[in-house]
Amino acid sequence: MTVTVRRIEKSDHEYFAYAKSICGRATYFLYFTDDIWGAVVLHNFVEMLRQFFDKENVKLILQDKTIQLKNEYLLSIFSEEQSAESSSVN
User: Fold this and answer.
1) Among 71, 44, 72, which Cα is nearest to 58's?
2) Burial of 4 (0-12, 13-18, 19+ CB in 10 A)
3) pTM, two decimal places
4) Among 7, 65, 6, 17, residue whose Cα is nearest residue 41
5) Fewer C-beta neighbours within 10 Å, C or N terminus of the chain?
6) HEC letters along 3-65
7) Helix or strand run (H / E) with residue 2
8) Contact 43, 58 (CB under 8 A)
């Protein structure tokens, strides 16, 4: 299984990680930022996939290509949720 990480276009610190299921019928994705919490969340995402699909190894690829969202509202939802979670941790 492979998890691909791509930076969100017009952003220096926001990323999506995604992986297709083994049968190809589902795609799992994660929005995260490049800070310590983003690293923890990415690690947990990869570990969750590894355990769920019973894989010994999961390959992580960082692509140079950015990802462009057609609907900017979607990104605002992710950003708002993350900032709310960060403020509740502090």
Assistant:
1) 44
2) middle
3) 0.76
4) 17
5) C
6) EEEEEECCCCCEEEEEEECCCCCCEEEEEEECCHHHHHHHHHHHHHHHHHCCCCCCEEEECCC
7) strand 2-7
8) no
The one-digit pLDDT tens for each residue of the chain (90 residues) are: 899 999 999 888 999 999 998 777 899 999 999 999 999 999 999 999 999 988 899 999 999 898 887 777 766 776 665 555 555 444
Q: CB neighbours (10 Å) of residue 71? A: 8
The one-character DSSP state at 70 is S
Give the sign of the dihedral formed by CA 41, CA 47, CA 48, CA 53: positive
Dig out the tokens for 88 from the structure: 């509740």
Residue corresponding to tokens 């969202």: 69
Main-chain phi, psi angles of 42, to 5 degrees:
-60, -45
CA distance 45 to 56: 15
